[in-house]
């Protein structure tokens, strides 16, 4: 009887072990597949030469020669700024800005709960349609009188002017907040798990916060040559078939030195390439800085809703209406203990496997994050 019982136990153990092995195998293959699918273009031919973008300073200056309509030069007056957070917004997105102010972009929450000084600014151009521009502009002035957190230049706010907005951010940082230890740039439909991110950055800043550039890294992509595509780039604009590595523009973090050197590089580069994150990759390749990937910076899609995910998440894309709810649940204290102990770890590992190694959740987080043992 006793012997039988042990045999049964052994059998169960072997079963569990082989299941685990099988699952790890699936995970590795799945990630291979996932990565292959993210490569937007397989390339051959001559590789990229960054010096081809070099132009004179006078000509480069034209790309950022836009006057300010709204500015807050004194925003960073206090000496110690840990985080300068730019949110790329557009004039008419009032609701999104309101949502961000009361959740992950709440300065006083971050300062009191997370213990670091942060400055949040929304970066804008002007409304593209001249007939509604005046009205929207009045609303923006009113909004800014209330919150003092908009910076706006006179360029037309459009997808094809995103690189101009990139220059606005780095130039502003250089002029008015060059002491900030880290700079984040984010879209206004993002969710950023500030407690997780700030905890991570505190560790980085204790070690060495130099040459630091973190986000979701694209290192195997190249220009789209289909004219109907939003990301179409002509042969003339970019003759090579691959881009230098860059982080997705939806959210990334750079250290102070990288921000300042990218800005410096941009002063002599042709910023006609409208895809802002790719242009940043070009600037970075000129100064010899490469991005570092973090598994919990999401791709194009929303992260699955689950405490085991919230425990590690940094960013998640595509949030407009669920921001407040997600903020409440994802930053609740329970989340920090969800994977404690062996059973907790097992539970979260299986949960992540189920949620991330799943064809319906491609482009969120990597499947291999399930193996956090
Ligand atoms: C920001 O956070 C503070 C402190 O946690 C809180 O009192 C305040 O209500 C929050 N602001 C908004 C707009 O939610
Ligand atoms: C970008 O902004 C400039 C300056 O306002 C404007 O002349 C140009 O038309 C804009 N480009 C696009 C594609 O909107
Ligand atoms: C910048 O690049 C565009 C596209 O290739 C080109 O038409 C333009 O002449 C370049 N500008 C300068 C100043 O070289
Ligand atoms: C880009 O140019 C700089 C100097 O101009 C050089 O140090 C760097 O290695 C180049 N990078 C690539 C990818 O060619």
From TrEMBL:
EC number of this enzyme: 2.4.1.-
Bilayer disposition of the protein: Single-pass type II membrane protein
GO cellular component: Golgi membrane
Top-level EC class as recorded in UniProt: transferase
Gene Ontology terms for molecular function: lactosylceramide 1,3-N-acetyl-beta-D-glucosaminyltransferase activity
Protein keywords: Glycoprotein, Glycosyltransferase, Golgi apparatus, Membrane, Signal-anchor, Transferase, Transmembrane, Transmembrane helix
Segment forming the signal sequence: none
Catalyzed chemical reaction(s): a beta-D-Gal-(1->4)-beta-D-Glc-(1<->1)-Cer(d18:1(4E)) + UDP-N-acetyl-alpha-D-glucosamine = a beta-D-GlcNAc-(1->3)-beta-D-Gal-(1->4)-beta-D-Glc-(1<->1)-Cer(d18:1(4E)) + UDP + H(+); a neolactoside nLc4Cer(d18:1(4E)) + UDP-N-acetyl-alpha-D-glucosamine = a neolactoside IV(3)-beta-GlcNAc-nLc4Cer(d18:1(4E)) + UDP + H(+)
Major location (coarse): Golgi
Gene Ontology BP, a term: sphingolipid biosynthetic process
Compartments where found: Golgi apparatus membrane
Pathways per UniProt: Protein modification; protein glycosylation
Alphabetized InterPro entries for the sequence: Glyco_trans_31
PANTHER family: BETA-1,3-N-ACETYLGLUCOSAMINYLTRANSFERASE, LACTOSYLCERAMIDE 1,3-N-ACETYL-BETA-D-GLUCOSAMINYLTRANSFERASE
Family in the record: Belongs to the glycosyltransferase 31 family.
Protein name stated in the entry: Hexosyltransferase
Organism: Coilia grayii (Gray's grenadier anchovy)
